[in-house]
Amino acid sequence: MVKKDDNKPNFALSKENYVLMAIGFGIIILGFILMVGGRSSDLNVFNADEVYGWRRITLAPVIVLIGFLFEIYAIMKKPKGE
């Protein structure tokens, strides 16, 4: 018969999961930071090249998507002890 320590709480996720989730959150934040910008100093001028640049339209959303996929992996990953 295996004796469990009743004083120790059983969490659904391990420390490793939380660390991976923090990394995924950082990746998502990086993607949103890459989307920022493109504002013109003159309010009457629309700077289309800056707003619709490759970084804001392609790179940043892909990084955000990778971050969300990494979050799913971090939640679903089983602890090594089990």
What would you note in describing this structure?
This protein has one domain (15-76). It has 82 residues and is mostly helical. The longest helix has 23 residues, at 54-76. It contains three helices and no strands. It has helices spanning 15-35, 48-51, 54-76.
Task: Tell me about the largest β-sheet.
Answer: none
Per DSSP, the total helix count is 3
Flag low-confidence runs.
Answer: none
In angstroms, what is the radius of gyration? 21 Å
Summarize the structure.
The chain is mainly alpha-helical. The protein has helices at residues 15-35, 48-51, 54-76.
Which short descriptors sum up this protein?
82 residues; mainly alpha
